[in-house]
Design goal:
The chain has helices spanning about 25-35, 50-60, 80-90, 95-100, 110-125, 180-185, 205-220, 225-235, 265-295, and strands spanning about 5-10, 40-45, 65-70, 135-140, 165-170, 190-200, 240-245. It is of the alpha/beta class. It has a seven-stranded mixed sheet with strand order 3-2-1-4-6-5-7, sandwiched between helices. Helix 7 (about 205-220) packs across helix 8. The longest helix has about 30 residues, at about 265-295. The protein is globular, with a radius of gyration of 20 Å.
């Protein structure tokens, strides 16, 4: 049986003050506690102030010996030039005007920097010789405390995907074929970032591809979070990836997690989500027609 090492991280960049989906550190720790009983070897990157919290949560489930905590006091020292460039774009008036949602979380340079570090963390864990055959990035806030999977006790198992020979990414609904700049502008989801699975030997390449994708985007005066960056990398290096249709957090149930109980969909909420999605689609089509009329027909 192939073994999979899980890798996650938690660093407080002031998310509780974000206008879009604010979350406190305590909320993230609650989310982590929901899934932290997974029996896989787990590597957690965090700072000194959160070290004891992470350790106590894993120890509560008797998994202290299967937990490695790597303390990094200043994540911005990892790639200061990248952070500088992202902060420049965050404050650029042209970028601000380009984005459809002025309050989007991924309008923050520091947030996008941390999201890119997901791929840095997984390659660093391999470089430190801490991993097994496969590695999987899993968000610290995975499942949002019961958003999809409702029973935390069911996470008391070892997740062991087999026959992994590519970088496994999960996408929502359908693969987005539009130009990257159009997706950056409208902030619509395709590739999902909560769970990423790959062979250990591919982690360095994964980071290099994502870093280069981010730098290309930055050179155009644009930026976005890990989900857009991974889509860009997949387009540039399609043979390195296996893309799997799924939904938020469901990727863990695609292998030996099929026993996890999934929250039943509220029909009223489903109708509401469909209505919002339809509205966004129609709005985008209208904006495109208006743009064409203004710039070409009414020239």
């Amino acid at each position: 049986m192939q073994k999979t090492t899980l890798i996650t991280a938690f660093f407080d960049i002031g998310r509780e003050k974000f206008k879009a989906i604010p979350r406190s550190s305590n909320k993230y720790h609650e989310y982590f506690k929901f899934w932290a009983r997974l029996k896989n070897n787990l590597i957690v990157y965090t700072d000194k102030s959160n070290y004891k919290i992470v350790k106590s949560i894993r120890s509560e489930f008797g998994l202290e010996k299967k937990t490695t905590i790597i303390v990094i006091d200043n994540i911005f020292d990892i790639n200061p030039q990248l952070r500088k460039r992202l902060n420049e774009i965050e404050n650029d008036k042209y970028f601000k005007n380009f984005r459809k949602n002025e309050n989007a979380t991924s309008n923050s340079g520091d947030y996008n920097y941390l999201m890119l570090l997901k791929s840095w963390f997984v390659q660093d864990a391999v470089f430190r010789n801490l991993t097994e055959t496969n590695v999987a990035w899993i968000d610290y806030g995975f499942n949002h405390g019961g958003k999809v999977f409702i029973n935390p006790n069911e996470f008391d198992f070892e997740w062991s995907p087999t026959h992994i020979d590519k970088i496994n990414l999960y996408y929502l609904d359908k693969i987005d074929k539009r130009p990257v700049f159009e997706i950056v502008k409208r902030l619509e989801d395709c590739i999902m970032g909560p769970l990423i699975l790959m062979p250990s030997e591919m982690t360095k390449k994964f980071y290099d591809m994502n870093l280069e994708s981010m730098q290309i985007l930055n050179s155009l005066g644009l930026m976005d979070d890990d989900q857009l960056i991974m889509l860009f990398s997949q387009r540039r290096h399609p043979t390195c990836f296996k893309i799997i249709k799924s939904n938020w957090f469901l990727g863990i149930s695609h292998f030996n997690g099929k026993h996890l109980t999934i929250k039943k969909v509220n029909k009223q909420n489903a109708i509401k989500r469909f209505t919002i999605k339809l509205y966004v689609s129609l709005r985008n089509k209208y904006n495109l027609i208006y743009y064409f009329y203004r710039n070409y027909i009414n020239y």
